[in-house]
Write a structure and sequence with these properties.
This protein is α+β, with helices and mostly antiparallel strands. Helices cover 24% and strands 39% of the residues. The protein is globular and about 45 Å long.
Length: 142
């Protein structure tokens, strides 16, 4: 298993079917933080030309905290070694084109629970959403 946080985050992202479906790219990562990028495409909207669906921004908050958590413990890939307990998202603006970025970092990490926060922005750096999530770290299965 890789120990470099960026390689670890990218490997886990490739194993996660939902991340692959949304075309999530891990741009950068370190211990306890990640930066994700998702290209805007019509499949992420309610209608052609409409802003990206808020559920995509919510998912990015969840994925960015999950990705950050994944850099802090050894576990199976694809998010299997952890589970979201709580998710809070505040929407600040919409986005219609370009790329969406989500930067997540862990605020506190215990033995079985981790708390993180995320800023979601567009390519120009405008904040689209902010959020927090609580994750449970699952024990390895024998």
């Amino acid at each position: 298993m890789p120990t470099d946080p960026l390689t670890l985050a990218r490997d886990r992202a490739q194993e996660n079917l939902f991340w692959r479906h949304l075309e999530v790219n891990v741009e950068d990562a370190g211990e306890g933080w990640v930066k994700l990028r998702v290209p805007v495409k019509d499949g992420l909207r309610n209608a052609v030309g409409a802003p990206v669906h808020g559920g995509v921004l919510s998912a990015l908050v969840d994925m960015a905290v999950g990705g950050a958590v994944g850099t802090t413990h050894e576990g199976p890939g694809g998010g299997v070694g952890q589970s979201t307990l709580d998710l809070n998202v505040s929407f600040l603006a919409g986005v219609r084109d370009g790329d969406i970025y989500a930067e997540g970092r862990i605020l506190r990490h215990g033995r079985s629970i981790a708390f993180g926060e995320v800023t979601v922005s567009d390519g120009a750096g405008a904040t689209l959403a902010v959020g927090r999530a609580t994750y449970m770290i699952l024990a390895k299965r024998s």
